[in-house]
Fold these 2 entries.
Entry 1:
Amino acid sequence: MQKHIIVNDRNYYKRLDKFLRNNYKELKLGFIYKLLRKGFIYVNGKRVKKQDFELNIGDSVEIRYNGPLDERKKEEKILPRPLDLEIIFEDDKIIAINKPAGISVHPGRNEEKVTIIEGLLYYAKDKFEPHLVHRLDKHTSGVLVIAKNKIVSRELTDIIKGRDITKKYQALVVGYLKGDNNKLESVLEDKNAVLYYDVLENYKVNNIDLTLVDIELKTGRKHQIRKQFAKIGSPVAGDNKYGNFEVNRILKKQIGLKRYFLHSYFLEFRYKNKRYTLISNLTPDLRKVLNRLGG
């Protein structure tokens, strides 16, 4: 494996992780992220750990790792582990659960809690093989659909990525918003990102304006809702990554908001001449927040 590559017109990708994925195709994705995490990636002689570090033509990218490359296989093994799953719906093709906040969908770095996929493997007890067809962020709750075999997984993934699906969320965002059928459109990770939202209620806490919104997601980009609302100056309440830490600290103290307020409550699609309508009620912790706001 060539461990030192100069960025040029032919191999260029703006983000460091995309560059590594496309120029070191013999390495699995999880192993590439491990190399970044552990500090084995250098750009122009300096250690870089940020996945979204921006590269330029002429940069020198180097992997300073001398261990066995098959070490990555250790990361791939996922074992069944018991987890209390709230099942919304199940048939011979899919299983849909109400994903709780604070639980990761898939094992990752520094993840000690049982993940959704580990819990599903335990639940399946070799009767079916669970496959993720979409994801929710660790602290996002709500409807999560899992396929029961590879064929269903491939077909459902195409449906969920396409337009013949309805995906709805509720979010509490910082700031005063108004109106219905508002459209947010932007480019995220070089792809078009679109959502629509209606305002459900406006609140105020310690001179902080808050708005409860109903969102219909038209595309499925990573952190899309959180990024797009932050872009218009109304980040999701409780989101320290894209929002305001001081505002979130006040909201935690005043209304007990301990995670970002984002919930996937509705998913509807047609598969094999059957329409699936999956609904997940707002979680108790988010209901308490609304009650404290008077909603």
Entry 2:
Amino acid sequence: MNKEALVQELGKIVGADRVSDSEQAVLDAAKDYIGYRRYERDDKKYWVPRAACVVRPQSTEQVAEVLKYLNDKKIDVVPRTGGSSVTRGIEPRQDGVILDGSDMNEIIEVNEEDMYVTAKCGTPLEYLEGYLNKMGYTTGHFPQSLPLAQVGGLLATRSIGQFSTLYGGIEDLVVGLEAVLA
């Protein structure tokens, strides 16, 4: 499938303004938080495989539709949220798609009785922590990437933090999650 057709079809799912195939958007989505582009040469040329585009869904339903479409077309996809990428998890695939969940940024519920919070994958951990602190609570999770990390990336990388010996890793703090598989 050519890139233009791919971008057009994904735009039908999430909206044309939520799909970008610009060189800069693709390069930005494939780098980590310090701006390190793993394959950038001194002459500013790149050796990195180039994704065809970046898609920014706004809902779980859009993620499901995008993944179903990409799976049916056998197109590689790499998930992304905050881009701290200390685990090198956002290595792009040639002509694949980067699925950026960072616009899915919302605290859905803080349940004070049962002591849990429900948040979408693009919710920044630092924001979530500050929000809970104002209520007298904490997430109990303080990774080095705190200023950049988002909930989806924490789960995808089995994140740990400075207080993991007290509170545990992210897998010890999660009660449940909603995931979309192709």
